[in-house]
Structure formats: C-alpha cells, structure tokens
Design a protein that fits this description.
0% of the residues lie in helices and 55% in strands. The chain is an all-beta fold and 116 residues long.
Amino acid sequence: QAQLVESGGGLVQAGGSLRLSCAASRIVFSLYDITWYRQAPGKQRELVASITVGGSTNYADSVQGRFTISRDNAKNTGYLEMNSLKPEDTAVYYCSADFKPLFHYWGQGTQVTVSS
C-alpha cells in the first residue's frame, strides 16, 4: 500500500515561512503528479499547487507568487515552500499523488497555523 507522509507544518507568525514535505513510499514517485491541497475549518478542501511528472506547475491565485511547489524524484519527496504567510493560509495541508486514471493517494495532513 502506497504511503504519503506530510511534515513541516507548525505555528508561524504572519509574514513568516514554512516548508512542507511529502515523503512517498511504495510508489514509483517519478510517475505521479503531486498536488497540495488545504482545508480550513468549516471550508471545503481546495487545491493549492500542483506539479506534473514533467515539472509543470500550477498555483491557486491566492498563493501565486508566495508558494513554490517542487519535487525531488531521487528522494521520493514533494515540497511546498510557503513564504509571506497570512492568517488566511491557516489550514490542514494535504499532499496527493496521482497516476491518472488508475491510482490516487492521500497523505494524512499537516497543520499550518499562521498567527496575526
């Protein structure tokens, strides 16, 4: 069974930075598109950023210019670098791995809290 484990969340002041990691195991990581989602209390889960197997990236408008998604296939790990954090970025952040249309896996999530 594939496993995705997020890490790097925590409490940070507004304007600060965090780097989230998504470590994958039991999949051929380089064949999977990686996407970061987030879910704030009382809100629907939303897409934050994605990176394809070829390295193409996509960002939500709300994080464009502040967040950077990347991947290291040699380490089976995806990353989300978050800068200039705002209180509205507070959420549980999840990573997912997709091998469309066959396989889709989720991590357990990591909490990010941004204080004002």
